[in-house]
Amino acid sequence: LPQTFSAKFDQYLRLGCLILSALLLLITLVVMGCVRSSWVTGETFSPAQPVQFSHRHHAGQLEIDCRYCHVSVETSDKAGLPSTQTCMTCHSELYTDAEILKPIRESWANDRPVRWTRVLELPDFVYFSHQVHVKNGVACTECHGRVDRMPLTSQSERYTMGWCLECHREPSGRLRPAEQVFEPQWEPPHKQRDRIAEHLMTKYQISLTRLTECTSCHR
Ligand code: HEC
Ligand code: HEC
Ligand code: HEC
Ligand code: HEC
Ligand code: HEC
Questions:
Q1: Rounded to an integer, what distance in angstroms lies between the CA atom of residue 141 and that of residue 156?
Q2: CB of 214 shorter than 6 A to ligand 5
Q3: What is the pTM (predicted TM-score) of this model?
Q4: Closest by CA position to 51, among listed 152, 144, 156, 150
Q5: What is the dihedral of CA 202, 126, 38, 170, to 10 degrees?
Q6: Is 117 left (phi over 0), alpha (psi -120 to 50) or beta?
Q7: What is the pLDDT of residues 57-105, one digit of tens each?
Q8: Does the Cβ of 164 fall within 6 Å of ligand 5?
Q9: Within 13 Å, how many C-alpha atoms sit on residue 48's CB side?
Q10: Centroid of ligand 4 to alpha carbon of 13 (angstroms)
């Protein structure tokens, strides 16, 4: 049988294939990296807002309760964003000339709501309720991180299905006594950690089967 390719050509061909597959692998890795990166998932990204509102200042330093501004968090699916009136309770007296608060004053004068840009949003096919979580001892911090330390609001987690399920499979140890749900800095007393976790699972009557059913979140 006559040799179709010279030995040299065969070597080049092998080398070429090797380089090509190495390149493909590299491209795949880069693409995967991008998809998972915080840039795509929105993690630690703060969108532009009409007013540079600081949680660090208001919820952290001034210690204003989350419920003062997110009024429906205990009673409905949505936490709700504050109305201009809520800001004006203080800012009709405080910082009244500040340039940074001009959009708030204009909104108040023209009776037009401020359009805050949402920081995090689930897809429409997912059902989520704040009320259910808050009533069962899941703290804001579990899902939103230390908002009280954020000068500009950013997403603290990637809200994937896997992330929701991680807690739904094993919520023990991630629940708090009712009076601590809104306290950003609370930690369980170290020595009683396990006992408290067990006690809270019984107290809130957490039903594990319901939590992992598809229809709980996809209705
Ligand atoms: C309970 C009172 C209170 C409420 C309600 C309130 N603020 Fe403030 N805000 C303050 C105080 C006090 C300061 C000044 C703090 C300082 O400079 O030490 C301030 C400062 C600010 C500043 C200046 C920049 C900064 O953070 O230091 C902005 C902007 C601001 N607030 C926006 C808002 C917006 C928007 C709302 C409504 C969503 C709001 N505030 C609601 C008390 C309040
Ligand atoms: C003084 C009013 C005020 C208080 C107190 C406050 N917030 Fe907010 N919050 C706002 C405003 C205004 C926005 C919209 C602008 C922004 O995203 O920064 C917001 C946005 C948010 C968002 C982003 C929601 C989204 O998808 O856009 C989260 C999460 C949040 N707040 C959690 C909290 C938590 C947790 C606390 C208590 C530790 C808290 N907030 C206390 C006024 C407040
Ligand atoms: C179990 C996780 C979880 C807990 C606990 C939680 N949140 Fe949220 N929060 C979310 C998710 C997920 C969204 C996005 C919901 C959507 O897009 O429908 C959200 C959205 C928000 C928003 C946007 C506006 C809105 O009307 O929903 C605010 C404000 C907010 N949360 C504040 C809070 C505060 C304050 C607390 C504590 C009292 C809290 N959240 C507790 C997961 C949580
Ligand atoms: C840190 C723990 C935790 C995280 C994170 C969490 N959940 Fe939950 N979830 C709970 C607990 C606890 C309950 C209440 C269980 C009960 O009532 O038995 C609950 C209840 C629910 C329910 C009501 C289920 C029913 O009984 O019908 C829905 C819907 C839900 N969660 C959706 C979500 C979604 C969507 C996410 C992610 C964006 C999420 N949860 C993240 C702990 C968590
Ligand atoms: C605790 C809440 C929760 C439960 C339970 C749950 N999901 Fe999801 N699911 C989500 C969230 C949140 C998303 C959107 C975020 C994402 O794509 O990861 C999602 C996304 C999806 C998607 C779209 C995926 C994509 O890549 O776009 C499918 C399909 C899905 N879920 C199927 C299921 C099935 C089947 C079950 C039951 C075995 C189930 N889910 C149980 C919360 C849940």
A1: 9
A2: yes
A3: 0.89
A4: 152
A5: 20
A6: beta
A7: 999 999 999 999 999 999 999 999 999 999 999 999 988 889 999 999 9
A8: yes
A9: 1
A10: 56
